[in-house]
Inverse folding.
């Protein structure tokens, strides 16, 4: 019974939220600037001033009836065109507006993508470590989420386990690259191999296995990193995008689905999204925000701080003897804890005002996540605390 | 299979949308100003300038990280408080922020309310004539929508049929007052009687029957009309509100649920909404719009044009011999067609550039809806067309 399921969820408090609340409380005691809060994945740089100026301009100049008017159910036509054009220009694709469906962030995009291609009895596979919200996203839609164990060597895909777990029940595979929480970007080799497996198994099972590619961190990729555009490599791809991170607009809930034009029934899927919306009370992201992001479609906030922070942390973690794969993007880093139980490890860190997230809920026990979307100055100051923590607790 | 259900829906085009498209096409031939388009329920007055000014002020002054930052999953705390205070001040209630959940319009509110209290095998009853989107809202959540036939005498509730149709499967009753499409406001007597029936049957069945009160037209009530605040009369009420009509912001998707403080587990229901959101990809309405409506919480757009238009149309329809109950609010009027088949009637009206919507999909065959959210000048000009139509086709 679904009603009971929602009630039960109330008793399971999010680990991240608990840690974030602890950080806030501790901040009241010693000043929040002294709490090294690596718990939350919130952008720490402002939206480009061009976005703000575009909104002010629209509010001053445009007819309010048009500006705040109903969006067509698939999204504002000109905005869908702008997005298709931008993707084509930047990634050599051939999207048309008919392949774009506007959503309330990546969460809304994934909710629609799942309902396009899966129903009760179906399975969706994802790879550890994974964003824990995938559990409610998938399971509350009546589909089962299966977690393929992590490849802890480099956090690329564990193909051996993946092939073992694939079955005719598989309706889709859900990936997130650049990845939350590992910070890893799947390489061209990984994506090519994934596409090969999906094609082979689709043929074997006699039905398509779709790829849902969750890409909110697409624009946060560090220098020299191989970051393929996933949809180029597999025709049956639903690209799920959010402007939350690239434009630092997490609260405005704006994103889209782009269905690969080479996917069979691509345009039908987009139209289905419009029907799915009616059942889940979605009905388009806000008109003004749709129009706003279209005005700055190829821009991002100044994302360079994330790479600066990553380099500082990575070097220090390695110096302190942590096992850690160097992130290729995002604002996360994912080291192995210095004892088997990462929950205990992170609990001890709190004594040093270091707020670290154990990775058990990410499907990767023994590891922890640091979200370094904070001021570089704070990162620098946290290094002293990190040293004291490691020395005092682990004698290093 | 749900996937198939969404596909099937693609083949059933909305009557309203088809008529609206016809109006647009006809407009290209003779100028849209000459098409008397009564098809769409879109506000026709601008949002208050205070709302626009508040947004510009926030964009200029506020820290963009806060302004566009993640909203807590139940909505921005200060906004929830502002809404509770406003409802208490205006309607003598005693809501606290803990009873308010921010949603993407009334559609989002209803989607959450349904999932709080009903699951597969349950029924939700509504009264004809009804907003046809209730079909996907309810049926796609796995619950069955039952339509109680209209009381065509005054479009209040048909209690005789209602009591016959109630069964232990009833989880909730969904009402819409002021009503789309009838324009009727349920009287205090109606709401009191409804509450009595619900209390009696809840007791008899041994479980609560909830009232989901969809109130996007709450602020559009005409002079002298008895318009009770529904939640005052029944404790187990989920008030579903949207600012789309009151502030003329249909595209910005902003509304809320207010659970009656006297409802058992009221605060639990609000917390459950936060969990339901995770399953349907909702995740809060846009932060900036939440903050914006809170700044003008007790204001509305200038809604007086709707009453002016209603009076013009009502008088003319009566003069022409239509059977029609005088609307108490909204921007709809709901006369009986001049022949049995309202579809045919509306088809004939198109020859006179009158776009009227047959009420078959509203659960009330033989009637038609006119959405008079258009310029008063156009309403006046349409009267000549209405006269020609009635005279030529029906000899009156």
């Amino acid at each position: 019974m679904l009603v009971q399921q929602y009630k039960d969820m109330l008793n399971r408090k999010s680990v991240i939220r608990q840690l974030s609340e602890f950080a806030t409380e501790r901040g009241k005691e010693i000043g929040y600037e002294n709490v090294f809060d690596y718990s939350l994945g919130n952008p720490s740089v402002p939206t480009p001033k061009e976005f703000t100026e575009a909104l002010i301009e629209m509010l001053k100049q445009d007819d309010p009836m048009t500006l705040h008017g109903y969006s067509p159910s698939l999204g504002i036509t000109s905005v869908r065109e702008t997005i298709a054009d931008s993707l084509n220009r930047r990634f050599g694709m051939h999207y048309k507006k008919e392949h774009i469906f506007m959503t309330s962030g990546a969460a809304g995009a994934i909710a629609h993508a799942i309902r396009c291609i899966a129903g009760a009895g179906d399975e969706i596979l994802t790879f550890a470590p994974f964003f824990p919200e995938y559990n409610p996203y998938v399971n509350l839609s009546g589909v089962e989420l299966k977690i393929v164990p992590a490849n802890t060597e480099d956090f690329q895909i564990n193909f051996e386990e993946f092939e073992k777990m694939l079955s005719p029940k598989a309706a889709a595979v859900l990936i997130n690259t650049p990845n939350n929480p590992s910070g890893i970007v799947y390489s061209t080799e990984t994506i090519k191999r994934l596409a090969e497996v999906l094609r082979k198994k689709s043929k074997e099972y006699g039905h398509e296995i779709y790829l849902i590619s969750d890409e909110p961190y697409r624009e946060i990729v560090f220098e020299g990193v191989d970051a393929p555009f996933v949809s180029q490599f597999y025709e049956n791809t639903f690209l799920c995008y959010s402007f939350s991170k690239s434009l630092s607009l997490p609260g405005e809930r704006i994103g889209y689905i782009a269905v690969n034009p080479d996917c069979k029934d691509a345009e039908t899927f987009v139209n289905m999204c419009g029907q799915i919306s009616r059942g889940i009370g979605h009905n388009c992201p806000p008109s003004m925000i749709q129009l706003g992001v279209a005005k700055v479609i190829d821009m991002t906030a100044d994302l360079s701080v994330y790479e600066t922070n990553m380099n500082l942390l990575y070097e220090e973690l390695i110096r302190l003897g942590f096992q850690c794969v160097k992130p290729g993007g995002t604002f996360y880093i994912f080291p192995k804890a210095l004892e088997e139980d990462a929950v205990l490890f992170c609990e001890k860190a709190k004594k040093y005002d270091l707020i670290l997230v154990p990775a058990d809920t990410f499907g990767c026990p023994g590891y922890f996540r640091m979200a370094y979307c904070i001021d570089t100055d704070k990162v620098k100051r946290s290094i002293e605390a990190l040293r004291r923590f490691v020395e005092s607790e682990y004698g290093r």
